[in-house]
Amino acid sequence: MVNQNNLKNIVVLGTGGTIAGTAASAADNIGYRAAQVGVAELLAGVPGMSEVLEGHALVCEQVAQIDSKDMSFAIWSALALSVQQHLAQDDVAGVVITHGTDTLEETAFFLHAVLPAALQLHKPVVLTCAMRPASSLNPDGPQNLLDAVALARTDGACGVMAVCAGVVHSALAVQKVHVYRPDAFSSGDAGPLGYVEEGRLRQVKNWPLALTHQTSGALEKLEHINPWPRVEIVMNYAGGSAAVVDALLQPLPSAPPLRGLVVAGTGNGTLHVELIEALQRAEQAGVRVLRASRCGEGRVLPVAGSLFADSKGLSPVKARVALMLALM
Predict the structure, then answer these.
(1) Contact 263, 275 (CB under 8 A)
(2) 10 Å Cβ neighbour count for 18?
(3) Is 289 left (phi over 0), alpha (psi -120 to 50) or beta?
């Protein structure tokens, strides 16, 4: 029995993505256009939502309408500010974000890194998505939305998370690992936080802890930083050379100067000798270098005498976000 005094709003913020995509044919799951259906229309088309809400109310807002491959820093700032504003309201139980799968892990980590810890400790932020468009014969978006709302209204839920195909991932661990199947995400060897089953959470790990000690007002400052520090990603591979790093160090009339480099090394962050020399030149030019791994699981273990700082377990794309924020 739900206590009527505890009923609050679940806020759903739309950003587009495949979950809002449409194709000419219901049999077409790859030739669609992302970000065609508004978040209000998406929610209206989800059967069983009232049962999952258990009396809570849905409030929706369209923050953006894009294919997530085109995610921008401006949208990140607007999204983070909107999430912060909603979480600060006493009548809001949690926030759900509909997002494309391609950069979901980066947005999740960004929010995890910048939202005030005081808000993350008490309320959930749940990103969800779809691998099939809304027009599909068998779309996965409606079930993912139901699961996200169920997670957001779970008593005690807190922190930034993602849910896809019934599996709940922390923002720190989530990564896209498959190009097609609906169960496209993994938490690697960290493992998932839990599973949403028939509108109920089966929790197997503790809620994620906030990384940040940001206070109110930090995001407002972030909104006015333009341009954001330029950080690029390079990779180690057989036959690697200094060419890419040396090219990135050259000034470009249309881009700010290079401030940071994340290198996705082989194995435990190992690097080709020529790439090492190029990265050393980059550091001498004032560019910060972080060493990550191109491996999908595990974390770079510190090695005595290593020339470059490691990414503290972050994947290359998340290490890039962390380095941009550090350079601010």
Answers:
(1) yes
(2) 29
(3) beta
Supply angle C-alpha 26, 29, 33, rounded to 5.
90
> ∠ CA(185), CA(325), CA(264), 5° rounding?
50
Residue with tokens 């909104």: 223
Could you give the angle at which helices 316-327 and 104-114 cross, rounded to 10 degrees?
A: 40
Amino acid identity, position 101: T
Per the CB < 8 A criterion, the answer to whether 171 and 120 are in contact is no
Nearest to 120, CA basis, from 54, 72, 172 = 172
Count of CA atoms in the C-beta half-sphere (13 A) of 53: 18
Residue 242, phi then psi, degrees to nearest 5: -85, -5
State how far Cα 135 lies from the chain centre.
Answer: 24
Alpha helices, H only, the chain: 39-44, 49-53, 73-87, 104-114, 117-120, 141-152, 218-223, 243-248, 273-284, 316-327
3-state secondary structure of 108: helix
Per-residue pLDDT of the chain (328 residues; tens, 9 = 90+): 455 557 999 999 999 999 999 999 999 999 999 999 999 999 999 999 999 999 999 999 999 999 999 999 999 999 999 999 999 999 999 999 999 999 999 999 999 999 999 899 999 999 999 999 999 999 999 999 999 999 999 999 999 999 999 999 999 999 999 999 999 999 999 999 999 999 999 999 999 988 655 555 678 788 889 999 999 999 999 999 999 999 999 999 989 999 999 999 999 999 999 999 999 999 999 999 999 999 999 999 988 999 999 999 999 999 999 999 999 9
Catalytic residues: 18
Amino acid found at 162: A
> What pTM was computed for the model?
0.96
